[in-house]
Amino acid sequence: MDLNTLNQAPLPELLAQLGGLYEHSPWIVEQALQRRPFVSLAAFKRACAEVLAAASREAQRGLIRAHPELAGKAMVAGALTAESTGEQARAGLTHCSPAEFDTLQRLNADYNQRFGWPFILAVRGPRGTGLTRRQIIDTFERRLHAHAEDEFHECLRQIHRIAELRLAEKFHEALPAGEQVWDWAEALARHSDAPDALTVTYLTPAHRACAQDLQDWMRATGFDEVSLDAVGNVVGVYHGQDRSAPRVLTGSHYDTVRNGGRYDGRLGILAPMALVQAWAAKGWRPRHGLEVVGFAEEEGQRFPATFLASSALVGRFEPGWLEQQDAAGLTLRQAMQAAGLPGTLASIEALRREPAQYLGFVEIHIEQGPVLDAMNLPLGVVSSINGSHRYTGEVLGVASHAGTTPMGAARRDAAVAVAELVLQVERIAAALPEAVGTVGQLEVPAGSINVVPGRCRFSLDLRAPRDAVRDRLRDEVLQALDANCQRRGLQYTLRPTLSADAAPSHPDWMARWEAAVAALGLPVFRLPSGAGHDAMKMHELLPQAMLFVRGGNAGISHNPLETITAHDAQLAVDALQHLLENL
């Protein structure tokens, strides 16, 4: 099959070929085909998703219940559809050991009892090559404890993934860039500071091994220049047709949080690498050259100098950072020199980029949140990176006997004031456009079960995509804290720990991302970034805009469950290609 067939073949013929995409539910494909013509397979898949999203809850539940159990009675009886038979066989479920089979039967029974529908998982996985039986069982056990509503929608998302893989087979869909990105991310994840988790912190042996891999891959894919700079950034340059024309700068970070995921940051390095590989293979060059930076540090896990790598490129590297110490007492300067870097301020200051030599900075990044996954959208255009205010604070009251201190004005309960603040933060943030507020730390020092808390420590994390909204959120929250303490006869201290301005995307570059997404046949969806990114620093020097890629497992990030599909990675590379080739 091909796109022309999809758009022009008679409906009965297409239903005969595509009706099995959704298990025993040809109505989804039939209604989606009413929207022909489609500019891409992605557009057709989106139409199917919209049909299902608009269906009644009962129709959605019926679709879920139409699916067979994994290694269940239908498989044993040979009663699966041809599609399900092939999928379960390729996942090895037809060759389970007795212990594995018994485990799956128990899980099927427990899951059905808890939710009332069969467990659904795209067993061919995010790469399309199949999950192992161990991965399937682990996922089954994890999702068995999910909230029922969350699990219902996860089943629907897995159904769409199953349909996507089935459609790819029928169209012999090639994903060379997406699969390459996925494979690179897997290979890079073999380097870790920890034996049992992915942890890569600045300038450790694992970090340096990642840098070496990136350099080797860049050279192999066809970059004209590859280097490691004075802060450990990996820099690859692919020259354009006109070497005097300004370049486009792109990239992201390759360090991780402790026990992190494979795609946070790294996707933004690997996607442009895959594009350069495709360009170089056919001997093609864009008019404007492309410079890809694998930023050495963004997470602030080893030294407190967060964004030190991108700060160097914008001329904002603080001299005092060189004397910061890690947990072992090693200074940043010493760590740099031990890694073979100069460790001098002069060498770092020389890394500052000249704005006139660049058109702008673009970054591809996994969303790190649930929005795109919930909307079944593979790509989203970032409108702004949130600005933030952070504080640590303490409310001071009077510790007293819990049994003999009457309720009411006699009590000076510090914890109650902070508990009230937690709810106020939630209410105030929810009432402001795209603002978020979090009290992430709560502590009653030396608290006791029979003592009214005399002290309560807390944190505040307040964010919004526009500085005016961020500041209003701060003002209203701090006013609420002050009012709480005055009313209850309490005192408080508050220490600011961070204040970062929002980084709105440049309108022209955001429009270029939107045009690229639309060209793929996908709806254009804007969303803010609640997390910080290297683009936030580059914003201080160059116009910037970001593209988000959907994360699986409800968008979880900074977590081993972080995942993307090869299909979504391919779309990200295709979008970047459209943006760069149409400048």
Automatic annotation (TrEMBL):
Keyword field: Hydrolase, Lyase, Manganese, Metal-binding, Purine metabolism
Oligomer and partners: Homodimer.
Molecular function terms, GO-annotated: 2-oxo-4-hydroxy-4-carboxy-5-ureidoimidazoline decarboxylase activity; hydrolase activity, acting on carbon-nitrogen (but not peptide) bonds, in linear amidines; metal ion binding
Record domain Oxo-4-hydroxy-4-carboxy-5-ureidoimidazoline decarboxylase: where: 7-168
Designated name of the protein: 2-oxo-4-hydroxy-4-carboxy-5-ureidoimidazoline decarboxylase
Highest taxon of the lineage: Bacteria
Keyword Disulfide bond attributed: no
Cofactor section: Mn(2+)
Originating species: Inhella proteolytica
EC main group: lyase
Domain Peptidase M20 dimerisation: 387-484
GO biological process, one term: purine nucleobase metabolic process
Protein family according to the UniProt entry: Belongs to the peptidase M20 family.
The EC number(s) this enzyme carries: 4.1.1.97
PANTHER family linked: ALLANTOATE DEIMINASE-RELATED (PTHR32494:SF19)
Gene3D superfamilies: 3.30.70.360, Oxo-4-hydroxy-4-carboxy-5-ureidoimidazoline decarboxylase, Zn peptidases
